[in-house]
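At your convenience, could you comment on the folded chain following this short note?
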Amino acid sequence: MRENLTTHQQKMVELFEQHMDAELNGDLDTTMATMSDDPHLNHVPVMAGGVGKQGVRQFYRDHLVGKFFPPDVQITKISSTIGNHQIVEELVISFTHTTPIDFLIPDVPPTGKPVEIAVVVIVGFKDNKISHEHIYWDQASVLSQIGLLDPTNLPVCGAESAHKVLDPKMPSRIIKIL
């Protein structure tokens, strides 16, 4: 049990861990069993996800559970903030883009390029189940890493933004004011 958590908060953490393990292991039924009767899922940068039990199940089945994770995926937890009704997880996800990843880069065939992104997941709970997930990442960073966006003369970073999350002592970018 994590220190200073209430029993309720600890149960939320355990349920979310069960949810993530099921996603990673391709277990759709267990993933859905962790969700409320009326969940929603929003991958904010690309507006991918689902609404309601059937919509979320269909999204997970067709685009995420058992489909996303290339063999070399690594997920590094940076921080967790645990409240009474939600958890906020900060992660860095790295992988080689060797498989289609519809929810992250829809309609983009595998490029074979490495990707490292900082991700924030906000997980809501209602009646001891996951009621929603809002997932945020820097889409410009992803697109520049796979070669679909030229970051030249743009205020855009590639994998460096994830590296700075992993190592906050890395020098910041110098901003030039025009």
